[in-house]
Amino acid sequence: MHIVVCVKQTPDSTSVYIDPISGLVDEERFVQILNPADACAVEAAVRLKERLGGQVTVLTVGPRDTEGALRASLALGADNALRLWNTSAASWGPLSIAAALAAIIQSELPRPDVLLCGDHSSDWASGTVGPALAGYLDLPQATGVSRLELLHEAGSPLPVLRLWRTLERGYHELLEATPPVLITVSASINEPRYPSLPAHLAALKARIPVHDPLALPIAEEESTLLEMHVPRPRPRHISAPDSRHSAFQRIGEIIAGGTTGRKTRLLEGAPAQLAQELVTFLHSKGYV
Question: Which CATH number do you get for residue 166?
Fold first, then answer.
């Protein structure tokens, strides 16, 4: 089985510093790491490789210093790494990056059985590259996967992947997919392993080929960022004060965050007595 993982190098969120005078982010203090969701994607790929066999290839688009993300992926258990870069790519958006990744997969790599991406990056968090890549490669996709299981072990002619997607409002969706398929995973899908020292040393010595994406047949599509907004905080719901109370009491209720006219009562006694008190209360309120 051939598994391809697309990764990105992003700033560690703990290293982000905002200058209190200018209000700008000090990029010189950034500590660059493998994007957390992408690290979980690499871990998921390595676990599939351990059960099904095959190899794991990691890809990224970026300058030379982004090889740190590739070497971190190799230390986790990936077999091969490849980097795409051209100075003009510095201004590319997610659609161009997805087109470049699709072009290199189609021209230089064996067709992947499973293609994994993080569901979003910790810097821009657009979540666009994975779905766009599936569109360019004409692959079925499952996004926002928070759990992945393999139903058929090695030797089965067609392995089946069981996927759990996290939806809005706490809902979950259960899917089954067969290769080829593209999956974007969330950072909650697993806990990446801690690489051993020999794995780290081997990753540091590994040779990483570099390809010029402009030499590839890239689809010319691009998105334009029109505006950026800080998320609006959810309004806090405050109950209206009881109009039967005095002005002083209503002010106190508003300060306390709502009406305080309701009272509670703690009952103690034998179970039969408590049950009778509960039935009496429900009768008084009209519930029974």
Answer: 3.40.50.620
